[in-house]
Amino acid sequence: MEELEQEKEGVRLQKYIASCGIAARRKAEEMIVAGRVTVNGQTVRELGTKVFPEDRVTVDGISIKPVATKYYIMLNKPAGYITSSEDERGRATVMDLVKDEIPVRLHSVGRLDYDTEGLLFLTNDGDFTYRLTHPRHEVKKKYLVIIRGDITITALCALRRGVKIGDYTTAPAEADLVDVAAKGYSSIEVTIHEGKNRQVRRMFEALGYEISYLKRLSVGNVTLGNLKVGKWRHLTSHEINCLKGM
Ligand code: URA
């Protein structure tokens, strides 16, 4: 039914690009505005442009088509990998961990810093990425944070109230001390629903702490479980449906 409607009325260019698995809708919008997209040989910078099944669309000169098989992968990202499909400095990327077994181009759902470990989704479904990363949906992400020394109650309360990072004040986070100063370190679980760049590290920096170890444990109600660092698996259909409903 939806496909029939699209044939009649066309589909917005950024949605079309997302359905090709190249990028999520917001990234697709940036590509269009940057003049990287053509429709039937013409560069198109207009975001609302409608595309029809017979149209030929390219990104960076390469023809794209909507993908038939959708992939949804959960990776336990190791530290020392960048969240990108390529790196101009030649560093290892998260795609290196899956590319031998996945026959299509994937993108990451959001990103984790080079030094951060943990749960990262990879997919070729741009709409899935859009749902999970758009700030409006306030999807919760839980992190394990390890710092040297003790954390004060005042700092925990500050995390729960919101912390000023640069000119932005974070929304109230959930913050719980889970282990005190084993060998001089403390572990805290922090849950946020925003996705500012290096947000958790900057929240702790603002309170005077440097994070020694950071790992993402869950996104929505999907958790990393006992997936080993550097390993990946396909999400179950139950997990995909839960995440699509966020
Ligand atoms: N917050 C950070 O500071 N880093 C990450 O990788 C994810 C969230």
Notes on the protein architecture:
The chain has 246 residues and is of the alpha+beta class. It folds into three domains: 2-64, RNA-binding S4 domain (Structural Genomics Hypothetical 15.5 Kd Protein In mrcA-pckA Intergenic Region, Chain A), CATH 3.10.290.10; 72-135 and 225-244, 2-Layer Sandwich (Alpha-Beta Plaits), CATH 3.30.70.580; 140-219, Alpha-L RNA-binding motif (Alpha-Beta Plaits, 2-Layer Sandwich). It is built from seven helices and 17 strands. The strands form four sheets. Strands 7, 8, 9, 10, 13, 14, 15, 16 and 17 form a nine-stranded mixed beta sheet that branches. The chain has a four-stranded antiparallel beta sheet with strand order 3-2-5-6. α2 crosses α3 (25-33). The protein is elongated, with a radius of gyration of 20 Å. Residues 112-113, 116, 198-201, 214 line the site of uracil.
Overview in brief:
With 246 residues, the protein is an alpha+beta fold. 23% of the residues lie in helices and 30% in strands. The protein has seven helices and 17 strands.
* Percent range of helical residues: 10-25%
How many domains?
3
Give the SSE string: HEHHEEEEEEEEHEHEEEEHEEEH
Whole-number average pLDDT?
Answer: 92
How many individual β-strands? 17
Shape: elongated
Q: What's the architecture of the largest domain, going by CATH?
A: 2-Layer Sandwich
Bound ligand species: uracil
Number of distinct helices: 7
Q: Low-confidence runs (pLDDT<50, min 5 residues)?
A: 1-5
Q: How big is the Rg?
A: 20 Å
The main pleated sheet reads as: 9 strands, mixed
